[in-house]
Amino acid sequence: MSFKQKLNKELIPSHIAIIMDGNGRWAAKHGNARIFGHEHGVESVRSVVEGAGEVGVKYLTLYAFSTENWARPKEEVNALMALLIHAIEEETEKLNKNNVRLGVIGDTNQLPTEVREKLFRCIDNLSPNTGLTLTLALSYSSKWEIIEAIKNLAEDVKEGNIQPKNINKELFDNYLSTRDMPDPELLIRTSGEYRISNFLLWQIAYSELCFVEKLWPDFRKEDLFEAIYEFQGRERRFGKTSEQIEAN
Ligand code: IPE
Ligand code: IPE
Ligand code: MG
Questions:
Q1: Fewest beta carbons within 10 Å, which of 47, 138, 230, 240?
Q2: Over the chain, what HEC string results?
Q3: pTM higher than 0.85, yes or no?
């Protein structure tokens, strides 16, 4: 039986976040330049977006480029930006057919103008869709996001719109770029690295973490289903005891 068939339809995470890692190593394994791996990663994105839609995931957030990634060699950054433009142009129609909405989180002002324009046009075009919400984390880092949130919150306090004593988790959530989504129940990282690399630090406070050995360009929807299957076998206790959870 495939992992997809084994899934409990009542227990599909509503939000899955993925750190898509290992493109460079995949390219090296195939005797090619790093960008070759990034290009092949697009096929994995396609497959995973499709798979997420098939099993009823509502939100899929993909870490595509971190603020730290700007420090990579200029040729790689430029090639990644060109690939992004190409992928947006190529994929919009398919995304639309699959009823996918697109969003972006991150410091998009840092992106080249052409990327930004194409991206926001694509987001606009797909905005009437009602299926999966695909969010790209681009020029994103969690510490950047949290600092931005604090700046905006401080402004609102200064203006007298908010009393410091009224600041709580829910209010802070509303200052983050993920304000319109639930926190991810499941976070997946590929390529056998066991770290978070500045991704959604606040939002993953209680996410289940799934680290897989496969490099991103080898990852397909069946691997996503396997991760969801593993997720469904976990006991999420949120600080309570096992006995309390079972009694419920
Ligand atoms: C992930 O793959 C894609 C980006 C970070 C843009 P990497 O490029 O980090 O590949 P590895 O980790 O070096 O193999
Ligand atoms: C994390 O991957 C960022 C993305 C997947 C976009 P990195 O390859 O940049 O992370 P580190 O540097 O190995 O932690
Ligand atoms: Mg990497």
A1: 240
A2: CCHHHHCCHHHCCCEEEEECCCHHHHHHHCCCCHHHHHHHHHHHHHHHHHHHHHHCCCEEEEEEEEHHHHHCCHHHHHHHHHHHHHHHHHHHHHHHHCCCEEEEECCHHHCCHHHHHHHHHHHHHHCCCCCCEEEEEEEECHHHHHHHHHHHHHHHHHCCCCCHHHCCHHHHHCCCCCCCCCCCCEEEECCCCCCCCCCCCCCCCCCEEEECCCCHHHCCHHHHHHHHHHHHCCCCCCCCCHHHHHHC
A3: yes
